[in-house]
Amino acid sequence: MKKYWFLSLSFFILILDRVTKEWVVKNFYRFETKKILGNFLRFTYTRNPHGVFGIPLGGKYLSLILTLCAFVFVIYLFIISKERFLAFALSLIIGGAMGNLWDRLTAGSVVDFIDVGIGRWRWPTFNVADSFVTIGIILAVAYWFFEEKRKGARSTCV
Fold first, then answer.
1. First-to-last C-alpha distance (Å) of the chain
2. What is the mean pLDDT of the chain?
3. What percent of the chain lies above the pLDDT cut of 90?
4. Over the stretch 67-79, which tens digit does the pLDDT of each residue have?
5. Which of 17, 103, 112, 115 is catalytic?
6. Buried-most residue among 19, 79, 117, 120 (CB within 10 A)?
7. Active-site residue 112, yes or no?
8. Which is the catalytic residue, given 17, 103, 115, 130?
9. DSSP secondary structure, the chain, as one string
10. pLDDT digits (tens, 9 = 90+) for 21-64
């Protein structure tokens, strides 16, 4: 299976992530909030020096090392994948991971700006890269779950 299309998708996600983050950095003050869909969807410019959801992972360098290890592992999974659906899911993760790695390597923190919530309950602020990583993980887990069920069903039929 040729994977060039999937890698093109990863680079498109990287470019989309970079463009949106640059737009936010140039048009917002830090912690400035603009309502997009009332109070439900807002853009709030923040920087996250930590891991996912702002959880500290033992310092900037440990966080970077863990991120790089996870990135290399996903690349490995992409290389050995033989199914188009799994390659698609992994390409979403790779594209998003490249966007956040870019920020970590160049600025030491990740630009976040998508702020979603209802009333006083707010989801941790995130970005375009995070969205694609999340979608890719959900699709990959679904693939592995259904693939295991399919393998189990096949083995019981023999």
1. 29
2. 92
3. 77
4. 899 999 999 999 9
5. 112
6. 117
7. yes
8. 130
9. ---HHHHHHHHHHHHHHHHHHHHHHHH--TT-EEEEETTTEEEEEEEE-SSGGG---SSHHHHHHHHHHHHHHHHHHHHH---HHHHHHHHHHHHHHHHHHHHHHHHSSEEEEEEEEETTEEPPPB-HHHHHHHHHHHHHHHHHHHHHHHHHHHHHH-
10. 999 999 999 999 999 999 999 999 999 988 777 777 777 788 88
Q: Which long-range contacts (CB under 8 A, 24 or more apart) does 70-74 make?
A: 70/97, 71/97, 71/98, 71/101
Q: What angle do CA 128, 70, 94 make, to 5 degrees?
A: 40
Per domain, the residue ranges of the chain are 4-157
